[in-house]
Amino acid sequence: MKPCRKPTRLIMAKQLQARRLNGIDHNPWVEFIRLAKEYDVVNLGQGFPDFSPPDFAVQAFQQATSGDFMLNQYTMAFGYPPLTKILASFFGKLLGQELDPLKNVLVTVGAYGALFTAFQALVDEGDEVIIIEPAFDCYEPMTLMAGGRPVFVSLKPSPAAKGQLESSNDWQLEPTELASKFTPRTKALVLNTPNNPLGKVFSKKELELVADLCQQHDVLCISDEVYQWLVYDGHQHVSIASLPGMWEQTLTIGSAGKSFSATGWKVGWVMGPDRILKHLRTVHQNSIFHCPTQAQAAVAQCFEREQQHFGQPSSYFLQLPQTMKPNRDHMIRSLQSVGLKPLIPQGSYFLIADISDFKSKMPDLPGAEDEPYDRRFAKWMIKNKGLVAIPVSIFFSQPHQKDFDHYIRFCFVKDEATLQAMDERIQKWKKELQP
Known about the structure:
The chain is α/β, with parallel strands linked by helices. Helix content is about 40%, strand content about 15%. The chain is globular. The mean pLDDT is about 95. Keywords: Aminotransferase, Pyridoxal phosphate, Transferase.
């Protein structure tokens, strides 16, 4: 009797992954997060606070999980009604619009979810999307996944006065270059203010330039404003949707995680006119359907509290930047002491530091031949100095990475103990530099 032969497993001849994933499978964050876990480091790379959210936010979440048992169940698909109501009321005043909670607000799984839903709903095969770089690194893959074509325009840095630190405000849009990026195929422009990684807060004049071009070419503006409360030195955040004529063609995206220092809650939102938002609702109802109820209930309570205290010293939206500005200034001084050249950010969680001096002194750091210098430097710093930062070249398109490979990004929205640990590493580094 012949032994039974196991059937041969056939390998699919068809391409397994969808074409939309081609070219976007590599994510540099994975590598740097892995390295941060492998070495004894102070993690100043990833953008999250390592301190508690405010007491009122923690209490709101506790109440949401232990109070009304129906908060364990489904809520309305497009947002927990008390949350959409308070968001409409709160932001309606800021945007100068009468917002309908059912038509003008959509609650999403973080701002990331709002972005993905917007790209899927609005960007079609062959549509062009203008991305101002440096740009948060999800905009390009999200454009590609939707079948669109990213079109990049870089902010241009200008040198600071002698003896002065550069500022994120020294990076400007070049009006003629920006205008040249608009074509009949342009569907949307992505704006991020305050900008990650640069910390730039776009001025009203710059926003008017963008607004005029969007209106002239009938282009949608997807405005990522998750850091809107984190502005420093008297700068003012302006929502482009509040400018004349822009409400009708703008999606404004926000984040409870960034607003209340609770990034793990993953509650975001997008606001806009019903004629645009109805298409995002279609994607939303056919993907996640709705977001966790209890987190939404907690965020609703937080905004109700902020609405009562808005503009007063007791407002968390005023207290948070006041608390973080000394952290920023502390980090700037500390980084300068070892020859890094920080740029003073106007807003956000982040500052970037120029590493040009290191690039000229030690150009041959380990790494692949075509690997941008800032990535090699960031890995060297993790392994040899115990400090994690993120290379800024990952926030640029491939053709521009070599032009901006001499910056690294640090997060200063950290606990005092983290900054002290940073100082210890910096002091050790400083001693090693002494002859």
